[in-house]
Structure formats: structure tokens, C-alpha cells
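Review form for a predicted model. The reviewer records the input and the model, then writes brief findings.
Reviewer: anonymous (R2)
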Amino acid sequence: MSIEKLSYSEFSKMLDDIKRSNRFNYNIYEIAVAKDYRALEHVLKFVRTQRICHIAVEKDARAIEFVPEEFMTPELCDIAAQEIKKAEEKVAAAKKAEEQAAAAKKIEEQAAAAKKAEEQAAAAKKAEEQAAATKKAEEQVAVAKKVEAAKKYGRALEFVPEALRDKELCYIAVEKDWRALEFVPKALRDKELCLEAVKKDGRALKFVPKALRDKELCYIAVEKDWRALEFVPEEPENLRTYELCLKAFRKNENALHYVPYTVKYYPNTFKLIPEFINFKPVDPSNSWPDKYD
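Model under review:
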């Protein structure tokens, strides 16, 4: 094997063998210290020539430790100082490179973390949007069902959002059930719609705006149901006339409860007008119910 390919431990063993055999080969020593400065320690002192010391110091300034004093020349010290400076610069450069690599790695990690956070935020936003879209779709389906229920059953109009209670839907609902009039927006309770409800059941008069409760509408309401008399206005114009009250009374004597005193009694007396004499006590079961039939 070529001596240039020997390891430091192999060189050390070989140099020790040379010491013991007293065979001196300067060429081998030069090769050894050129390969590893530490070989200088194994070179016999009287064989450590200035050339060998120079080669070792040029290889690594730390070899100065094994240089005999007589070879400690300014030139050799300068070489060692230069080598030390080079080594320090290499160390500083390596440290700087390591710091830069660490900084670059940190930046890369931060960028990766930022990207991951952005992706997570985007995923969360997308999930939130999907949830909102699903919720909106479910609400739309629910509203559509309520609208269909209102068209089918009328009074289900109560559960339809007011913004969707348009004129067409309200008409359909009232046609199905007069009680739907209660849930029609006041702005849509016009004369035509109220008349439709009252024709179905006189009690719908309760939900007719007071401004629309005219003589004709009240007459139709009482004609349909005597209990509508309760909601016939007395002011600004008293529409509970003798004729209307008598019509209600003839349908059911309990209507007397809603007949004004000025109509059922003689003036300044507590004597009933003959037409209202056949009065019977109010039957609670036949009065206006808390809940509609």
C-alpha cells in the first residue's frame, strides 16, 4: 500500500517502528507530517529538520507545539500565525454559514408554518361558507315548506317569514282559512281581502283594520256570525245600529251582550225595547271562544 494512503494511526505505528529500528528516512517523515501534522510528534527530535517542521506547520499551525526551539524562526512563526488566521477565518466562515443555514431553515420553517396556517384558515373559511350555504339551503327548504303549508292550510301563514307574505300568498291563505287574516301584514289587509275573509266567517271582522269596517262589511259579518257584533265600531260613527243589533239578536239572544245601551233601552230608562225583551242569560259555551272553532 502507498504510504500516502496510510491513516494517522498507521503512520504513527510505522514511525514508532522506525524509531525502534534506528532506520531514518527523511522522505517518509516529510510525507507523514504533510499528511497529518500530529506525525511530527513521533519524529525523533534530532531528525526534526527545519524543512520537516516547515512542512508540518504549513499543514497545520498546531504543529508549532512540536517544533524544536532552534527552528522557531520569525518566518516559521509568521507561517503559523497565517495558518492560525486562516483556520480562524475558516471557523468564522463555517460558523457564519451555519448561522445563515439556521436562519434560512428558520425562515423556511416560518414560511411553511405561515403557508400551513393560511391553508388551515382557507379550509376553515371554506368549511364555514359550506356550513352557511347548507344552513341557508335548509332555511330556504323550511321556508318553502311553510309557504306550501300556508297555501294548503291557510292559517299556517303565521309561520311564514313576514317578508315572504306577499299579496298573492295572503289571498290564497285567506281563501283556505279566514283565520289567516290575523297574520296578513296590515299593509296588505285591503277591502277586497277583508271582504273575502268576512264572507267566509263573520268573526274575521276582528282582524279587519278599523278604517275598513264600514256599514256594508259589518252587515255581511253579522249576517255570517252574530258574534261579529262585538267588533262592529261604535265610533267615530256608531255602526251598531238598531237594525244590525236586532239582526244579531234574532240569530242568538246572547248578542244582547254587545248591543249598546242606547239601542236596547228606552231613553233615560232601564226598560228594554220590546224586541230585546226575550233575553236569556249568556251561555258561556255559546259566547266568543278563546280559541276558534
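Findings: The longest helix spans residues 74-153.
Further findings: Confidence is low (pLDDT under 50) at residues 281-293.
Recommendation: see findings above.
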